[in-house]
Write a structure and sequence with these properties.
Number of helices: 13
Structural class: mainly alpha
Radius of gyration: 20 Å
Number of strands: 0
Shape: globular
Order of helices and strands: HHHHHHHHHHHHH
Distance between the termini: 41 Å
Strand content: under 5%
Length: 307
């Protein structure tokens, strides 16, 4: 009797992976929502700075409890490149949240598997199967539905949103190589350190040249002036770290393709959160574009999983 009850409430490895990935997307959506709230009063660069400085503290505690695994060889240049590209992607993502909205920005961000498949074909010589080419085509049709410069948002800001996906894909390509040479925490740490040093440099430039208006590359540091804002910056770092940690754990429980496919729930969570924060309902064209992008991305993920 006891064994029957235990088996009934035991969660399988596959279901654990699913639940962890749903938690990942929820935490990442919360990170985006907090950045939207804070971004009304603080520059994008400052959001990136605080997001990463809190994450570094968690990584440092992890390294203290379990030292980094040393591997033969090294690719220091590629490690730095991954950190820089990842940080630029985060710059652009937080900025696109402000100008495009949560659901719109998340949709563009999750077109990265389409660009990753194309870049892998172009630069790594990976063969793409017919379903993957079909997924790429469907994804680009979805982008055309989402890319609507005829609306109030200028075309340049749509391009910025797509830039997030392209840089994310480039970053993931570099991670494939780096995994052969470095502990995963070293790769994450390089990204977070870049996410601290680059915003500091950008804000120094902003203070040195006050005539430059704030943008996603240059800004002025604003000291948080309320307890709520300090707590917001703390929550920004914690939710991002928890999302990253659960993401890593999710891939240990189930096939990468299925887990990646579940990740598209981030678009749903971000859209709902955006509506709750006062954003307008997505248009019919936007919904069609979202569905096509999700379908294309899931098709790529599941095809890779079968391979």
């Amino acid at each position: 009797m006891l064994n029957t009850l235990t088996n009934r409430f035991t969660i399988s490895h596959q279901h654990k992976g699913t639940l962890l990935m749903l938690g990942t997307t929820l935490f990442f959506a919360l990170t985006a929502g907090i950045s939207k709230w804070l971004g009304k009063d603080y520059p994008t660069l400052e959001l990136v700075f605080f997001r990463n400085i809190i994450g570094v503290l968690f990584i440092w505690l992890s390294i203290r409890s379990r030292p980094i695994e040393r591997k033969a060889g090294g690719k220091l240049g590629l490690l730095i490149f991954r950190g820089v590209v990842g940080t630029l992607s985060l710059y652009m993502f937080f900025y696109s949240i402000q100008v495009l909205g949560l659901g719109h920005a998340a949709t563009y961000q999750y077109t990265y598997p389409i660009f990753l498949a194309l870049l892998s074909w172009l630069f790594l010589g990976e063969r793409l199967k017919i379903p993957e080419w079909l997924a790429i085509f469907i994804g680009f049709v979805g982008i055309l539905f989402v890319f609507r410069p005829d609306l109030d948002v200028p075309a340049g800001e749509h391009i910025l949103g797509l830039g997030v996906a392209i840089l994310t894909a480039v970053s993931y390509l570099s991670i494939r190589r780096l995994g052969q040479y470095y502990d995963v925490r070293t790769i994450i740490l390089s990204f977070m350190l870049s996410g601290i040093l680059m915003p500091l440099l950008s804000m120094v430039i902003g203070e040195s040249f006050p005539e430059i208006e704030d943008n996603f590359l240059v800004g002025h540091f604003i000291l948080p002036h309320t307890t709520y804002h300090w707590l917001g910056f703390l929550a920004l770092g914690i939710t991002a770290y928890l999302g990253q940690k659960m993401l890593t754990q999710a891939f240990t429980y189930d096939k990468a393709g299925r887990i990646a496919a579940i990740g598209y729930s981030n678009i749903l969570f971000s859209t709902i959160l955006g509506i709750l924060m006062g954003e307008s309902l997505p248009s019919t064209a936007m919904v069609i574009g979202m569905l096509l992008i999700i379908f294309g991305g899931v098709l790529i993920a599941l095809t890779k999983s079968k391979s």
